[in-house]
Amino acid sequence: MKSLFTIFIAITTLSGCAQPKNTPVKISVAESQKPFANEAVATFAEGCFWHAEIVFQSLVGVRDAVSGYAGGTTTDPNYEKVASGSTGHAETVQVYYDPSKITYQTLVKAFFASQDPTTLNRQGNDAGTEYRSIAFYNNDKEKKVIDSTIQSLTGAKVYSDKIVTQVLPLTKFYKAEDYHQEYISHNGDNPYVSNVSIPDFVRFKAAFKEAKFK
């Protein structure tokens, strides 16, 4: 989300990346703000959390994806501090899902399919440690799923470069400011949203065949 004007100019010049404003794109939002008793929680960082939020919320079985910060040491992160790169935190989403409708493994596959996990400390034009790729795990079972997925992608040579995604235990998740929640659904005219987030999301939906979409 850095240098929005620079990104806007670059992308509008390369018009093939821009999403036409008259093309309808369904952006799923949280179905409820209150977690359900049958839900599990998964946590991922894959660059801009606006993008990650709509990726996961588009999947059947996911009720909500909450934008926030994780992976660092600062106990009072906010957007400005995290953007400075001094907190160690990355932009992160916590995904609330129903395991009877979508598996953790499918979420992990969606995580890798919706980003470039081979770029260190960046996604596209967003550069910095706050945009690094991290798959957080809550237990050994989740870690095994993440590790096996990385091994599978590596063995299949899906990427020409090495996957640099960090695999870390989740210690603490900090919810981001309210204005970041459901940001894309409320700010469709934002140049970053219309020219980066939406096109990336459209490509993900077209390519990802592992789950049903809302």
Number of strands: 8
Beta fraction: 15-25%
**What's the number of helices?**
7
| Spatial order of strands in the largest sheet | 7-6-1-3-2-8
Q: Give the distance, in angstroms, between the N- and C-terminal Cα atoms.
A: 26 Å
- Residue-averaged pLDDT: 90
Element string (H = helix, E = strand): HEHEHEHEEEHEEHH
Radius of gyration: 16 Å
State the fourth-level CATH superfamily. Peptide methionine sulphoxide reductase MsrA
Shape by Cα distribution = globular
Structure keywords:
214 residues, disordered N terminus, 18% strand, Peptide Methionine Sulfoxide Reductase, Chain A, single chain, 8 strands, six-stranded mixed β-sheet, alpha+beta
What does this structure look like?
By secondary structure, this protein is α+β, with helices and mostly antiparallel strands. It has one domain (37-207): Peptide Methionine Sulfoxide Reductase, Chain A (2-Layer Sandwich), CATH 3.30.1060.10. It is 33% helix and 18% strand. The protein has 7 helices and 8 strands, in the order H-E-H-E-H-E-H-E-E-E-H-E-E-H-H. The strands form 2 sheets. A 6-stranded mixed β-sheet has the order 7-6-1-3-2-8, with helices on one face. The chain has a two-stranded antiparallel ribbon with strand order 4-5. Helix 5 links the parallel strand 6 (133-137) and strand 7 (166-169). The longest helix is centred in the last third of the chain and has 17 residues, at 191-207. It is globular.
